[in-house]
Write a structure and sequence with these properties.
Elements (H helix, E strand, L loop, with lengths): L6 H7 L11 E6 L3 E7 L19 H17 L8 E12 L8 E12 L2 E10 L2 E13 L2
Antiparallel strand pairs: 1-2, 2-4, 3-6, 4-5, 5-6
InterPro entries: FabA_FabZ (IPR013114), FabZ (IPR010084), HotDog_dom_sf (IPR029069)
GO molecular function: (3R)-hydroxyacyl-[acyl-carrier-protein] dehydratase activity
EC number: 4.2.1.59
C-alpha cells in the first residue's frame, strides 16, 4: 500500500520523535473526518526490554498513544490548526481486545465525531490484520506550541 504521508512528513506535523513517535505512515486522510495510519511494531522497540522480558507485549497505553498521535495528525492537517500542537484531553470507553507483539503491524483508524473550537472527540480503533487490538474515544485539545 502506498503511503500518503512519509515519516518525514509526519514529523513536520507532530513533535514526537524516536523513541516516542508511534506513527510510521499515513495511508488515508480525509481532513477533518478520518485518518488511517500505521505503526510497524518491531522487536527493537525500547519498551520490549522491560514489557515483558521473554514475553514481549506492547503496552496498552502506547497503543492508545499511537491512536492519539494519528488523531493529532488528522486535526493538525486542518488549515486553521497548522503549526499548532495536539494534546490528549481525555479517554473514554477504552477496551483492549488483543495483544500486540513484535512483528505486528498496527493499523490506526481515527474518525472525528465532533469538533468545537479547539476540542475534538474521535472514535479510535487499532487493528492487527482484521482483529481489533484496542478501541476508545479520544478527546483532543489543539493548542499553541
Amino acid at each position: 500500500m502506498m503511503s500518503l504521508l512519509s515519516a518525514k512528513e509526519i514529523q513536520e506535523i507532530i513533535p514526537h520523535r524516536y523513541p516516542f513517535c508511534f506513527v510510521d505512515t499515513v495511508e488515508e486522510l480525509e481532513p477533518g473526518k478520518r485518518i488511517v495510519a500505521s505503526k510497524n511494531v518491531t522487536i527493537n522497540e525500547p519498551f520490549f526490554q522491560g514489557h515483558f522480558p521473554g514475553e514481549p507485549v506492547m503496552p496498552g497505553v502506547l497503543i492508545v498513544e499511537a491512536l492519539a498521535q494519528a488523531g493529532a495528525i488528522l486535526s493538525l492537517r486542518e488549515e486553521e490548526f497548522q503549526g499548532k500542537i495536539g494534546y490528549l484531553g481525555g479517554l473514554n470507553k477504552v477496551k483492549f481486545r488483543r495483544m500486540v507483539r513484535p512483528g505486528d503491524r498496527l493499523r490506526l483508524e481515527v474518525e472525528m465525531l465532533k469538533f468545537r473550537r479547539n476540542v475534538g472527540l474521535a472514535k479510535a480503533t487499532a487493528y492487527v490484520d482484521d482483529e481489533i487490538a484496542c478501541e476508545c474515544e479520544l478527546t483532543s485539545i489543539i493548542g499553541d506550541k
